Amino acid sequence: MEAGPTNGSAEVSDRSEATTRRRLLAGGAAAAAGVTALAGCLGGRDGPVPAPEVTSDRIADWRATDSAEGVVFERSYGVTTVRALEHTRTYEYAPVADALAETVDPSGSPLRFVATRLDLRPAVDRLPGEVGRDRIVSEVAAAATEVFRAQLRDAGIAGVAVADEGISTVTSGHTATVWRLTGEFALDGDLPLPSGSTADVDGLLDVGARLGVWHDGTDVLVAGGAYPAEPVLARLDRSLPDGVDAERAVTRVAGEDAAAALATDPADFDVDVSQLLISVE
């Protein structure tokens, strides 16, 4: 079993988390600056916010786990109050989620995909001239990154840090600011062994993630996903006693398909998440 963090390392982690948040917020502002030149009214519809749609066929292996609506941003600019309403859909990769549930049953999941549509009300173009369009969109884009980070926290993914930033053209033809991130997932639980006993699994699984933010001419869209940055089966193998094979143990408990899912190459997940991200409309 790996030792827990010391108080000193916890303080470092807190500082790192704060720094990461500032970088993501700054990135959200940069993304907003890139979309404000596009045509469109940036909001202005009445009624419910339409759900974001994941148009890639790859979503077939991902199971919808939640659909939520709410207000992620509300701020007054003089006599005018601007609100950003969200509609967020959350997914998990079913083969790995089921395999983990049948074996170690950890809290959360290292595979999560999130798509969010943000609608500004009133529309930015309808606001008084002294209310800066760039400023509002920057703040809304920053709030959008927080939606994604909250989803990762809910999935049990901690220590999220920005690895790099770039741009990408999404399927709809718009330009997104895209970040690559890293984090850790606590892979803990008890794995039944062929001998009839159980082995304590307690370790940190490296996680990769991608996040994109763009404006589609009407709304701000946020899409991103997290995935294991190493084969889950390999991490389980390192946690088991010498002489105990993780593949054999998982196969005995959950079957060959589960073992194969946990042995998936992280590069395959990265491609999946990247393709899902750009397909959101």
Write a concise synopsis of the structure shown.
The chain is α+β, with helices and mostly antiparallel strands. 35% of the residues lie in helices and 35% in strands.
Tag the structure with descriptive keywords.
281 residues, alpha+beta, 7 helices, 7 strands, 35% strand, elongated, disordered N terminus
Structural notes for this entry:
This protein has 281 residues and is α+β, with helices and mostly antiparallel strands. Helix content is 35%, strand content 35%. It has seven helices and seven strands. The protein has helices spanning 7-35, 94-102, 133-154, 232-239, 246-254, 256-262, 266-279, and strands at residues 62-77, 80-93, 112-121, 157-169, 175-192, 198-215, 220-228. The protein has a seven-stranded antiparallel β-sheet with strand order 1-2-3-7-6-5-4, with helices on both faces. Helix 1 (7-35) crosses helix 3, helix 2 (94-102) packs across helix 6 and helix 5 crosses helix 6. The radius of gyration is 21 Å and the shape is elongated. The model is unreliable at 1-40 (pLDDT under 50).
- Coarse morphology: elongated
What is the count of structural domains? 1
Order of helices and strands: HEEHEHEEEEHHHH
The count of β-strands is: 7
Helical proportion, percent range: 25-40%
The overall pLDDT, averaged over residues, is 83
Amount of beta strand:
25-35%
pLDDT below 50 for ≥5 consecutive residues: which ranges? 1-40
Please list the strands of the largest sheet in the order they lie side by side.
Answer: 1-2-3-7-6-5-4
**What is the end-to-end distance?**
44 Å
